Amino acid sequence: MYGYISIYFTPTEEERKNYLYYYCGLCHSLKENLGEFYRLTTVKEVVFFSMLNNPVENINEFRCPYVGLKKRFKPENNSFMTPYAYLNLLIIYGKLLDYNLEGKPVPKKILKKLEMKLLEQFDPTTINEYKHLLKMQQRVEEQNLDLDDYAKPSQGIMEMLFDEFFPQGYPATMPVVTAYLLYLVDSVYDFNKDIKKRNFNSIANSFGVKKLDELTQDQKERILFTYDLCSKEFLENVEEVANFNKHLVKKLATFSLIYHRNSVTKILDGGEIDERATNHSRANKKGRVQKPIFKI
Predict the structure, then answer these.
(1) Which tens digit of pLDDT belongs to each residue from 92-115?
(2) Entry's Pfam families (predicted)?
(3) How many angstroms separate the CA atoms of 153 and 288, rounded?
């Protein structure tokens, strides 16, 4: 389970049921289209994407063995989730390709196998553009740039995904602020891990620091201002993107953005970083900020 958008509030039974409809639907679609193993890679932002474009219809109740046979819900007809299963795979493929570009050992045959699988859903032009943008990201990170400039290739990736999944149109700022939010929060949460492993980190490179407590107050305020500006723009436009589930989508986005704002603020102020905040599962932090109320 990966991702930043989760249920950071006490859901009503209807909200819980509707969220699981998409979450469990994606999990089952990953199994059906890609195999059992891929259920472990579920990305919560993909769940969120699926909620925007698809209504809740004909819910099936079942007992899930992965959560102690607890009651869960999924679509009766799960075929509409297939594109999102492949989107989920695209994100995982991108992460592995990113590792490879950083010089980490990722077998080429695995990357090739995933790419061939992705071509079942996406056209070659899309895959090639995706690879091009990831390589561009790598080249950008080799330069000494301003914090905002490092996120521009990620912006290109988000624009490509919005074009693919929202052909009816979307506010022009949505892929921009989405990319900046993800890139910024990643940089804060992964800061210590990146420094320890000598990986690139946009905050470290932009401000020339090796520890977050070396940031000046102005630099911390710059980070939080960027977060707040992007959050405001995202929340003002997310309902326009949503063809369905407008209330739940807005609620999920609002509470998630508040949660991560509190987490980022605490980290910048010198709070202890729980390991769960910095690993790829993005389970985030212990402490005074609120934990996810509802756990999958």
Answers:
(1) 999 999 998 888 889 999 999 999
(2) DUF5685
(3) 34
- What span, in angstroms and rounded, lies between the C-alpha atoms of 200 and 98? 12
291 within some domain: no
**CB contact at 8 A, 181 and 231:** yes
Which element (helix H / strand E) includes 278?
Answer: helix 275-278
With vertex at residue 246, the alpha carbon angle to CA 183 and CA 6, rounded to the nearest 5 degrees, is 45
Q: Which residues contact 284 (CB under 8 A, 6 or more apart)?
A: 189, 259, 260, 263, 274, 276, 277, 291, 292
Output b/e per residue, 142-151; b: 16+ Cβ within 10 A: eeeeebeebb
Task: Please give the single-letter amino acid code of residue 295.
Answer: K
Tally of structural domains, the chain = 1
> Of the candidates 52, 139, 128, which has an alpha carbon nearest to the alpha carbon of residue 90?
128
Per the CB < 8 A criterion, the answer to whether 62 and 72 are in contact is: yes
Residue 295 maps to a domain: no
Distances 203 to 124, 134, 143, 144, 214 between C-alpha atoms, Å? 34, 19, 13, 11, 11
pTM above 0.70, yes or no: yes
Above 50 in pLDDT, residue 283? no
Task: Confirm whether 192 is domain-assigned.
Answer: yes
Q: In Å, what is the CA distance from 202 to each residue of 77, 132, 149, 281, 293?
A: 43, 20, 9, 20, 31
Q: Residue 287: what residue type?
A: G
CA-to-CA separations, 294 to 17, 247, 252, 288, in angstroms, rounded: 11, 18, 12, 17
In contact, 212 and 263? CB cutoff 8 Å: no
The CA distance from 172 to 2, in Å, is 26
- Supply the range of the domain harboring residue 75: 13-278
Question: What CA–CA distance (Å, rounded) separates 257 from 227?
Answer: 9
